[in-house]
Amino acid sequence: MAANTNTSRKAARYAVPVAVAGVAAATVAMVPAFANAGGPDLPKVTAQQLIEKIAASDVQQLSGTAKISTDLGLPKLATGLLGGGGVAGGSANPEDKVAQLANGTHTFRVAADGPDRQKLTFLDGKDEYSLIHNGADVWGYDSKSNEVFHEKNADAGAGHEEAGRLAASPQQLAQDVLKAAGPTTDVTVGDTAQVAGRDAYQLVLKPKQSGSTVGSVQIAVDAKNGVPLRVQLLSSQGGKPIVEAGFTKVDFAKPSADTFVFNAPKGAKVTEGGSEAGKAGRDEHWKALDSFPGFGGLMGGANGKGGDVKVLGEGWATIARIDSGAGKGLKDLENSANDKNAPKEAKQFLNSLGDKVSGSFGGGRVLSTRLVNALITDDGKVYVGAVTKDALVKAADADK
Questions:
Q1: How far apart are CA 317 and CA 208, in angstroms?
Q2: Which of 66-70, 131-135, 157-161, 252-256 has the highest mean predicted lDDT (pLDDT)?
């Protein structure tokens, strides 16, 4: 899949959706998992040769089955807001599915025929969610709610953008990772592996810097055609992958044309992309957080004005400082949450912000996940990145 046009980047690419890919690639490069022992015996290659093999791959047709597992270690409240582990159910808008993929394990069927035709069908029990890109049309269909999302002339539409975000393939993700890798990254070739019955090399990217929550990124590359078959993101603390996205079965033959044909089922509710109804559905997800006492002021609100952003550090140790201009925002939130008339959700959210910390910057709380951590200070600043709690406190102290 060598197409590098705007159309192919925006298209519903043909394999593994990774909801956190944008976050991870924006703050770090990404990760290798533990190499499989006893892999196939393949000719030796250098890291540069393997990167060139990925870049030279011209595969644009395939079908098969893939799986994504995401374990960010999110607080229970955040997991609930993301809709748990299911994808089917609710709006058919692709944008609404992105956040839900940040939790749990999802299996899906995939098919692609060039940059203009892709289909993904997510399988969550008896319910299904399908995303189809066919020329100028993007369709989303949720079987549980019997709702359809449609965008015509999608190359220029927001719905097309969301389709691209939702359906990033292992190849697209691998390209993003390699693009983000720079002088702060060690790139090597790991042990060989078998993925979806295919012999594969494994390209390993590892941070040179200390303080990152990312241990490494491992990309399994088809030894024959150079297609990335799997991407694994591992924590510097060990354990199972934070994200593992890859094929379980793959066939590089051309899918039949009717694979990408979609007709809305009788009685289904159809929402056209860009409509007010679609926008209202997207905003609904964040109203719960925005309504917590003090939270809207602390973070700028879901619909409010955000604060100034400053980037600290580089590479894997990059930290974003967000100055919300909220003054004593965190203190206000704590006082509001502890009020006897405050809803229980406000206290639950406060507790989800994690442990209190202090330093020369003052005081605050750290919200921790396995990948991204955030320090929220008493004076309304937020330090966030794929770095450890200690690295955040150190950055806040140095930023005074």
A1: 10
A2: 252-256
- Same domain membership, residue 247 and residue 103: yes
Return d(Cα 371, Cα 166) in angstroms, integer: 20
Best-predicted range by mean pLDDT among 71-75, 91-95, 255-259? 255-259
- Taking CA atoms, 42 is separated from 56, 190, 198, 230, 366, in Å, by 19, 12, 12, 18, 46
Q: What integer pLDDT is reported at residue 289 of this predicted model?
A: 33
pLDDT digits (tens, 9 = 90+) for 283-296: 443 343 333 333 33
Please check whether residues 104 and 248 belong to one and the same domain. Answer: yes
Query: 82 with 95: CB under 8 angstroms?
Result: no
Strand partners, 193: 200
Indicate the pLDDT class of residue 179, thresholds 50, 70 and 90: confident
Same domain for 241 and 206? yes
Which tokens in the block code for residue 62? Answer: 């395939």
Kindly tell me the burial class for residue 4, based on how many C-beta atoms sit within 10 Å of its own C-beta (0-12, 13-18, 19 or more).
Answer: exposed
| CATH number of the domain enclosing 306 | 3.30.310
**Predicted confidence (pLDDT) per residue in 282-340, tens digit:** 444 334 333 333 333 333 433 344 457 888 988 888 999 988 665 555 666 666 666 66
Mean per-residue pLDDT of the chain: 74
**Tally of domains within the chain:** 2
In a domain, residue 1? The reply is no
Torsion of CA 16, 19, 20, 21, to 10 degrees: 40
- Burial, 78: exposed, middle or buried (Cβ in 10 Å; 0-12, 13-18, 19+)? middle
C-beta of residue 120 within 8 angstroms of C-beta of residue 17: yes
123 belongs to a structural domain = yes
Would the CA dihedral through 348, 350, 353, 358 be positive or negative?
negative
* Rounded Cα gap, residues 299 and 272, in angstroms: 31
Torsion of CA 243, 167, 222, 105, to 10 degrees: 40
Task: Name the phi and psi angles at 77, rounded to 5.
Answer: -60, -45
Question: Residue 42 above 80 pLDDT?
Answer: yes
Note the Cα 237 to chain centre separation in Å. Answer: 20
Helix (H) or strand (E) holding 174: helix 170-180
